[in-house]
Design a protein that fits this description.
The chain has helices spanning 19-22, 27-40, 53-62, 82-91, 129-157, and strands at 2-7, 44-49, 69-73, 95-99, 121-124. Helix 4 links the parallel strand 3 and strand 4 (95-99). The chain is 42% helix and 16% strand. It is of the alpha/beta class. The two termini are 27 Å apart. The structure holds 1,3,4-trihydroxy-5-OXO-cyclohexanecarboxylic acid. Residues 10, 73, 75-76, 78, 99-101, 103, 110 line the site of 1,3,4-trihydroxy-5-OXO-cyclohexanecarboxylic acid.
Amino acid sequence: MKIAVIQGPNLNMLGIREQHIYGPMSLDQIHEQMKASAEQNGVELEFFQSNLEGEIVDRIQESLGTVDGILINPAAFSHTSIAIKDALSAVNLPTVEVHISNIYKREEFRQKSITAASAAGVITGFGPFGYHMGLMALTQIISEVKAVEAQQQAQAAE
Ligand code: DQA
């Protein structure tokens, strides 16, 4: 099973930016931990971070046929980007959205995620541990999708 981990703008500044909100861990440290636990479960992760909306749209499009699902923190683009929402809907892969902070506890403009409408679900407010929770949820969804596909193939072959 292969999963694309897509990180939006300013998440490359984790460990430096607003530590009282996002904590002390860097993005590389978060990714190392995710990689270690994913490997134990036979899951391969592909990491991508960009500060540019179009690059994130491109990366989502490239996910089609190359990965089984998408774990995404669109960061500030969550609240603004119809383009990222549309790209997620276009590829129609199992997707889980993660936010490190609890967006519902913050400024009003953060309390709506446009992109979340294209995700199976959202994990918000559990710090970097949210990425692990997101991975667990996503691997479960992908396993269910694969099981249904296998069943359909078996029925078609009958
Ligand atoms: C964030 C929340 C967003 O509102 C913010 O713009 C971010 C990070 C989070 O992970 O908590 O950059 O997505």
